[in-house]
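seq:
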Amino acid sequence: MHRLPWGSPSLSASFTFPISRIRRWSSPAPSFVYTLAQWGLDPIVAAVIGLVPFYVLGLALYLFYSRVFERRGGANVLQSLTLFFGLSLVVEILLVLSFGSELKSVNVSYIGSSLKFGALTVPYRLLIPALLGPVMIAAVWLYLSRTNSGTAIRAVAHEERALSIAGLDPAAVKRHAFGIATATAVVAGAALIMIGPVEPFGGRFQIGRVFAIVVLAGMGSIPGNLVIAIVIGVAEALVASYLNPSWSPGVAFAILLLGLAFRPQGLFGAAR
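struct:
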């Protein structure tokens, strides 16, 4: 069950990469949740408080990226990866200076408790994040499929020029999408810090699985993220239990390569 919340971190990447080829940037999210939790706040409450600040942060980051690269006609995958990877390194160093490099965890009453169904015992620290991921994905998918702004976000990922013809500003739509992606990273941070301790450089270990989930699901496929996150999570758990735990980090990429060999656009993605 501790593998199921991978749908949460992959959600922000499914927003940003299809639209602007920007790497997911959420290094401060778990540390933000940790800071508020030290004040006695529940991690979920801390995540809710952080939604608006991180949305504004996402707007500012994309505005900077847009003005420096896109408006000059120099935006490409390599430049966006370089920019946000470098920014992540700077943020990680600042987090180390602020919080230290040791593992940080939150102390909430229900994290040490379990829910019992007869002979089955499920720790709340795993159950709550496992439920949080699908709920967040469902909420985002409803927003994308039932609102005009959500439709615009899906449209700009497929054909930016058509959106301009319709009288909408593609840059504003992408800026809004990046803000939402950054906000969802706070919820993912709350889920991860409930599962176990986190540290400033933990994002480097997460991004590999997140990349595999997003690409294998199909760029921009929100429901596909949940399905692939569960598949990869269960596969990693089986490999760790019955073969060798040290092999589990390579499971995601093994499944990714196998899936792309048969369906290059992703299992739930549409061919372009």
